[in-house]
Amino acid sequence: MNEQISPSQINAAGHLTIGGCDAVDLAHEYGTPLGVYDVSQIKSQIQHFQEVFKNNDVDYAVCYASKAFANTAMYQLVHEMDCHVDVVSAGEISMALHAGFPASKMTFHGNNKSREELQLAVDQGLGVIALDNFHEIDLLSDILEKSQAEIKVLLRITPGISAHTHEYIQTGQIDSKFGFDLESGQADQALQRVLQEPRMHMLGVHAHIGSQIFELAGFEGAGKKLVDLAADWKKRFDYEAEVINVGGGFGIRYTQADRPLKPEQFVDIIIKTIKQESQAAGLKTPAVWIEPGRSIAGPAGYSLYTIGSRKDVKGIRPYLAVDGGMGDNIRPALYDAQYEAAVANRPAAPAVETVHIAGKYCESGDILIQEQALPETQPGDILVMFDTGAYGYSMASNYNLNPKPAIVFVENGQATLVTRRETPSDLERLDFGLNGQQLS
Ligand SMILES: Cc1ncc(COP(=O)(O)O)c(C=O)c1O
Ligand SMILES: N[C@@H](CCCC[NH3+])C(=O)O
Question: What is its EC number (predicted)?
Fold first, then answer.
């Protein structure tokens, strides 16, 4: 049996349960592909982060990086759990506001925020703008002056750390599109500029070295660099950072080959590093902010698919196709990301073969799992893919005009539909006919 499944998750019918709900019943009731989130897993990961901060006696904010997975219910849930959020677009800001998430607890990120997005952030009174470049400082300055408003800012720094992860999800190396570079003096210039802006309140520094990182050294290095920078700024510009935000990126287990530290263990070491280095440099201990996305949403998410066609090729692994694929999870095609799966209606059955799990999209690269050991399967069986909660639904597309799946939250045996499945009319709603008129 897959090591992701504990015997207590198998019910009397022999089916996998998620959050106390029968996965096969969920698939039949809500249809497939289906995203299922175990709410108690989300809550307990957030609590683990919060406990680590409390144990280390530092001021903090856990800012959920909502790009990992956002819908109205998720914003409500993380608000209930006393989190801040990291938002990166007018869409994320609007949905968070719609969900009742307080603007004051949002940090706005992005390497090319538009004037309209910055204006929205100012009008709504967002808590913090993470400034990424000089163009943005000019835009924000102009907007604040015209709106007679003020706002807190963080400076996003590129710390010059190449984290060991897929190159598409590295962000801390010098050759990066994000943030102010340290080596060339850009970061110093940005600080001096912001300190002259009467309507910007300089809160502190930010760095995010990348995503799905397992090595501690990168996080420790980023923490040290940010404290060194804060100490240097205190000395040279008489400015002391109140907040050091180390971003997210804590790696999670997708397959047996992954053996990361627990996300809160990374954070514990980051906090200790920042505390020690600050004391050694004669600085007050700053508040430590983190921005975990994947580590909160990823392990709590499961994708349910219905198994359909099968193609056996002589001498080669069979292709077992499911009713979703790269449209609801682009990660295997984009990053060669690895996942594990099981048959939800027979999770304890012994494996008899190794198959490719193929999606239904018109791309040869639409393979969700290259090698998955499975028991014998028939069309109609329900396949569960584990740890799909981050960057799956949020990166979903309508390729081949397939609708995006529904999302269900489960907890204590109760299921709640929180995002309905798209329908063909959802896909047509933005279109006009050749004559420029909406077709009835
Ligand atoms: C600025 C920033 N913060 C936080 C995150 C979240 O990262 P992760 O989902 O790996 O925790 C990202 C995405 O990589 C990011 O760009
Ligand atoms: N989308 C990426 C993570 C990028 C995070 C955004 N900076 C992934 O699926 O792994």
Answer: 4.1.1.20
Q: Which residues are catalytic?
A: 362
> What backbone phi and psi angles, to 5 degrees, belong to 218?
-60, -45
Where residue 48 falls (left for φ over 0; alpha for ψ -120 to 50; beta otherwise) is alpha
Q: How many structural domains are present in the chain? A: 2
Residues 240 and 265 reside in one and the same domain: yes
Same domain, 201 and 268: yes
CATH number, domain containing residue 249: 3.20.20.10
Residue 440 lies in a domain: no
Predicted structure pTM score = 0.97
Q: Is 200 in the pocket of ligand 1 (CB under 6 A)?
A: no
pLDDT, tens only, 11-49: 999 999 999 999 999 999 999 999 999 999 999 999 999
Q: Which domain holds residue 374?
A: 7-31+300-428
Would you give the distance in Å from CA 370 to the centre of its chain?
24
Residue 323 in contact with ligand 1 by CB distance below 6 A: no
pLDDT 10s digits, 87-108: 999 999 999 999 999 999 999 9
Task: Check if the interface score ipTM surpasses 0.85.
Answer: yes
Instruction: State in Å: Cα 130 to ligand 1 middle.
Output: 13
Query: Closest-lying ligand to the alpha carbon of 111?
Result: 1
What 3 state SS string does 323-365 have?
A: CCCCCCCCHHHHHCCCCCEEECCCCCCCCCEEEEEECCCCCCC
Query: For residue 135, which amino acid is it?
Result: H
Structure tokens at 343: 């048959």
Ligand 1 centroid vs 418 CA: distance in angstroms? 24
